[in-house]
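agent> Task received from the user: take the single chain below, predict its 3D structure, and emit structure tokens. No templates, no multimer pairing.
agent> Plan: (1) validate residues, (2) run structure prediction, (3) serialize to tokens, (4) report one or two observations.
agent> Step 1 OK, no nonstandard residues flagged.
tool_call: predict_structure(input=
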Amino acid sequence: MSTATFSADWLQMREPFDAAARSAAAMELQLEKRLASLRSSPTRPLRVIDLACGTGANLRWLAPRLGGAQQWLVVDHDADLLHCWPERLAAVEGAHTGSDAGLHEPLSFAGPGFEIGIVRQPMDLMAGLETLPWHAADLVTASALLDLVGTAWLHRLVAASAASGVALLMSLNVDGRHGWTPEDPADATVDRLFAEHQRQDKGLGLALGSQAVAVLRRALEAAGYRVFTASSDWWVDGGAGPQAQAMQGALIEGMAQAAQEQSRASATTVGAWRRRRLALAPQGQLRVGHIDLLALPG
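)
tool_result: status=success, residues=298
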């Protein structure tokens, strides 16, 4: 078993594509309207827990939409990513941050219409999920997490959520769809091997991959939640410029590596696919399927 680790550079590269995808999903979910119902008092800060928070992209996207006073507890197993938070928050245009006195000291972050206090906490979510302050939270959220977790862990998440009556917002969960333009004869082979690789144990049980949203939805509805979903697909058009070309290149490299690790016998096929795809990246297009899920207590 290994714990999935993502570099700060990769998280920074994907952030604008995440933001565009989430903005489209938010409209379909009526996200701001539905999340506004969580604020029980105009004088009490909205309390949010962010699971596997990385360098803070989830907070940077969501906090302005929640608005008002907020308190966030952000947890990740990788302390190096937590150390990146002050720098990443300071780079947000129009916002301001307090000084960073170290990982275990609170951060502040504010912008037009919102003000946040942030506590960062290193945590192994396999061992520590139930130790979080569930009953103090209004919302528990995560981005790009569900496809890395197993069935047992998801049921633990639902049990803890239902016991405290907290809302859940789980964003950017892969659903297994990859739409390439132009198509390549080896696309289906690489997609299949990549999906098999995704279902390995990433540190939170045997990963569900693209099946995670369906499993979570059934468990939440059985626990009495109202569940809403919307597509939050990445659109990566190499013709849009260097940023999109770099993103597409990173995805091609990552998929090829995973596919070759999954099947050494397919190394030649996958290697040739990689070369063709990289050559096409400046004008190629890729759609990566994701789903956002919002669950509100019944």
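agent> Step 4: summary for the user.
The beta strands are 46-51, 68-76, 96-97, 107-111, 114-122, 139-143, 167-181, 226-231, 234-237, 285-296.
agent> Done.
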